Structure formats: C-alpha cells, structure tokens
Amino acid sequence: MDGTRGLALMLLLGGTGVAMLTAGAVMTVRGLRGKEEIRDELIRQKITFPDRGLPAGHGRYAGHRVENGTQARVFSEMIGGNVRKATGGRSYSEVSADLHAAGGDDEGLAVLRQTAFMGETLRASLMSAYQAWQVTSLAVGLGAVLMGAGAALAAAGTILASGQ
C-alpha cells in the first residue's frame, strides 16, 4: 500500500475511532444522567412498598422505597393487581361502560370507575419510569460498546500511522 493510501486509511480509521469514542462517552454520560434523574424523581415521590401484599416473589421490596425502574415496575404490578381485585378483573373502560349502561346514576360504579382510573394512571406513570430506565440502560450499554469499538479503530489507525 502506498504512503498516500496508508495515510488516508490511518486518518479514516483514527478519525472514525475518535468520533465513536466521543459519541460513546456522550451516550454513556447522558444515560447515567438519565438514570440519576429518574431515581431523583422516584425518590421525590416517596413511594414505599407496603409490608404485605406484594406480588409473589417480590417480598424483598417490603418496606423499601421505589428508587429505580425495576422497583417502579414491581410497584406498578402491585397496583395492577389491586385494581383488578377492586374491579373484579374489569378494565377502566369496562367499568365505565357499565356505569354508562346504568344511566350514570350508580354511585358504586362511579367510585369504582374513579378507582380504576386512578390506579391505571399511577400504573402507567410507573411503567413509564421503568421504560425510561430501560432506555437509559440501553444508552449506557451502547455507549460502552461504541467507546470500545472506537478505541479499537483509533488504535488501528495509530498502528498504521507508526508503520508509515
């Protein structure tokens, strides 16, 4: 390979490696900052697992605060179970349809509809926190992969440059 082609290849590999290192570092930092923001917001909400009534296999969370995406998902599962229990397994829309069919005058169904609405809203908020937590985890992981690949390319470019 002649010197001009070797220099061009070295610059291409090295430049791509540096760009990937930079992008990876940005992704990692942004992902970690996102996790921190999610954690801070969950802590501000002061959501605490009850001592009893948790979904099977989640007893280890009893009495602990919700501070991360995984815990938010578990708490949302607990809320979902409570809503299903309160509504007899019916969704908000089913309870609402029953209330409408009753002419809107059934106070018990009206209260049940409100319970279903609030429970499903809380559940959706917690699931959003869980999903955001997953996305930030993905950003951190992909950032690390980009940094590793970028370092390898930058090293290859340096090796090529030293051989010129």
The number of domains: 1
Helix percentage range: over 70%
- Biggest sheet character: none
Q: What radius of gyration results from the CA coordinates?
A: 26 Å
* Number of helical regions: 4
Q: Please trace the helix and strand order, writing H or E for each element.
A: HHHH
Distance between the termini: 10 Å
- Cα shape: elongated
Parts with pLDDT < 50 across at least 5 consecutive residues: none
Q: Count all strands and give the number.
A: 0
The pLDDT mean sits at 92
Content of β-strand: under 5%
Helix vs. strand class = mainly alpha
What are the SSEs and their pairings?
Layout (H helix, E strand, L loop, with lengths): L2 H43 L23 H19 L4 H10 L5 H56 L2
Helix pairs in contact: 1-4, 2-4, 3-4
Give structural notes.
Keywords: Membrane, Transmembrane, Transmembrane helix. It is a single chain. With 164 residues, the protein is mostly helical. It has one domain. It contains four helices and no strands. The longest helix is centred in the last third of the chain and has 56 residues. 21% of the residues are buried.
